Amino acid sequence: MLLRVRWSWIYVLFGLFLWSSCGGGPVTLAVSVNKQEVAAGDKVTLTITVTNFTLTDPASGSTASSTGYYRIFLDEKTEPLKEGFASTIEVTLPSGLTAGAHKLRVALYKGDKTPVTPTMEQSVTINIKSANLPTIALKAMGSTKVNPGEQIILSVDVKGFRLKEPASNTSPAKGEGHYHVSLDKNDAAKTYIGVGYKSTIKVTIPLTTTAGPHKLWVTLMNNNHTKANPEVRASLDFEVAQAAAPTLSVTASKKTAAPGDIVILTISVTNFSLVKIANPAAKAKPGEGHYHVLLGDGDPTDSKIYFSADYREKLELILPSSIPLGKQKLFVYLMNNDHTKYTPETKSSVDIEIVGKDTPIVNATIANKNVVPGKEFEIKISTSNFKLTKISNSPINKSGEGHYHVTLDDNDPEKDYFTPGYVESYKMTLPKNTSPGLHNLHVYLMNNDHTKYKPEGKANIEINVLDPTAPRITSFKADKTKVKVGDKME
Fold it and tell me: Any idea of the CA torsion for 384, 386, 391, 392, to the nearest 10 degrees?
């Protein structure tokens, strides 16, 4: 009985010795990797953390059960890639490693080169990228600092992907397609500013782009405009300069009109995009919107004051029946998409005289205000509430009909006038001795007997008389009058 008690004490003491020799607790092992997306042949760094186990150089010859080193294995291979005892270690991956997921296993070994018992092993997963993944080399051909609305020319060098001209409703073919150019964080499949398949492409930076740094992205797309899988894209940094302030000008088809008449306003803008008005109103965007038309100046956001909101370059404006008679000004304001006033404030105006509905009206226009004495030019003439009739040798005056006289400057329309006219296209020639400089042509409505019609109907045209002996350009034409930035004009 005494012998048995003694042996039990020996077993307890031996157990306490094993516990204390292992640091007073179980051995633990943790492993992490600095990057998981890598290519075959790349280097990765592993961080090894252990407790209750001392990592030592296997060459030290230590045989203690609480000391040792680790071995690193690839997947299920039994031959280690590397072994070590430092808390971090760099491992070079095999160059022939196939694409996809792989494991790096770390196992603890004792100084005698046998595994720790029980086995202590942890692993991390790495993903090997395909060696045949397409590449894009992207650079700008010229400056990367542009104004809104200007173009950047991109050089696009694609390897490992066949570029074909885009076509709609085409089934994807592996490794074949085109590319989309998108701006900043826009999804290349949904919002893009360029589509290409050649080694260069011109892209126009939208007028609404804010000033400051931006990115252009070139993304490879399948034939059906979906993204290639895996996604392949490259970026280019560029800078947008502060946009120039917009300009606005307006002209009217008539200088004299009556309530209810149609006046065509021609709207010209620069550094601003006129866009269709949304309902409900869209959010304000820099450099785009529409315009409001007011009679007289005032608050263009007040719906009681403005009587037209539009985005077209030519507006057929019906004058309100309540418009006051007399000399008036029509104002046009640039507005944001949400109908707030654009900043900086941009407005323009045109003069118009409002007469009674029954008052005779004459309007006259000239294509080119520069006139050479002795050279024929043309005036376009239109009338309202007055009928133009042929000139008679035995005239009889009738209310609301007659012809017109054209005079120069302050000449009397009943005594000093050019050849009388009664058609809408009037061709005339100034005397060769007309002095160079600014002059006024007046078109008067006249009775059949050549007396001035009452109430007076009169139109004015300002002309610039040129010196006939001075050198001048006799003609100037363009092959097109509507172009985009970067287009050619002849």
Answer: 160
Residue in 79, 93, 111, 78 with CA at minimum distance from that of residue 46: 93
Side chain identity at residue 35, one-letter code? K
Residue 411, exposed/middle/buried by CB under 10 A (0-12, 13-18, 19+)? middle
Instruction: Annotate 225-286 with DSSP letters as a single string.
Output: SPBPSS--EEEEEEEEPPPPPPEEEEEES-SEE-TT-EEEEEEEEES-EE-PPPSSPPPP-T
Taking the alpha carbons of 458, 464, 468, 473 in that order, is the dihedral positive or negative? negative
Task: Identify whether the C-beta of residue 290 lies closer than 8 Å to the C-beta of residue 274.
Answer: yes
Q: What is the pLDDT of residue 120?
A: 93
78 CB contacts (<8 Å, ≥6 apart)?
none
Q: Pick from 105, 90, 103, 87: which is nearest to 47 by CA?
A: 87
d(CA 183, CA 214): 8
Q: How many angstroms separate the Cα of 483 from the Cα of each of 248, 377, 442, 488, 489?
A: 18, 29, 37, 8, 8
Report, in angstroms and rounded to the nearest whole number, the Rg of the chain calculated over CA atoms: 43
pLDDT of 433 higher than 90: yes
pLDDT of residue 230: 79
What's the mean pLDDT when you consider all of the chain? 89
Amino acid identity of residue 476, one-letter, is F
Structure tokens at 251: 């002209």
Structure confidence at residue 11 (pLDDT): 34
Q: Among 465, 457, 412, which Cα is nearest to 438's? A: 465
| Amino acid, single-letter form, for residue 312 | R
DSSP label of 422: -
Mean pLDDT over 174-201 rounds to: 93
Bridge partners of 452? 446
What are the distances in angstroms from CA 30 to CA 43, 85, 87, 137?
Answer: 20, 14, 11, 40
445 in Cβ contact with 350 (< 8 Å): no
CB contact at 8 A, 261 and 384: yes
The two three-digit tokens of residue 106, written as one number: 């770390």
Look at 12 and 79; give whichever has higher pLDDT.
79
Q: Shortest CA distance to 157 belongs to which of 196, 188, 215, 106? A: 196
Nearest to 350 by CA among 412, 303, 293, 431: 293
Chain segment 336-355, per-residue pLDDT in tens: 999 999 988 999 999 999 99
Token code pair at residue 153: 């020319």
Q: Chain centroid to CA 23: how far?
A: 66
Using the predicted structure, report yes or no on whether residue 402 has a pLDDT greater than 50: yes
Query: 123-142 pLDDT, tens per residue?
Result: 999 998 766 678 899 999 99
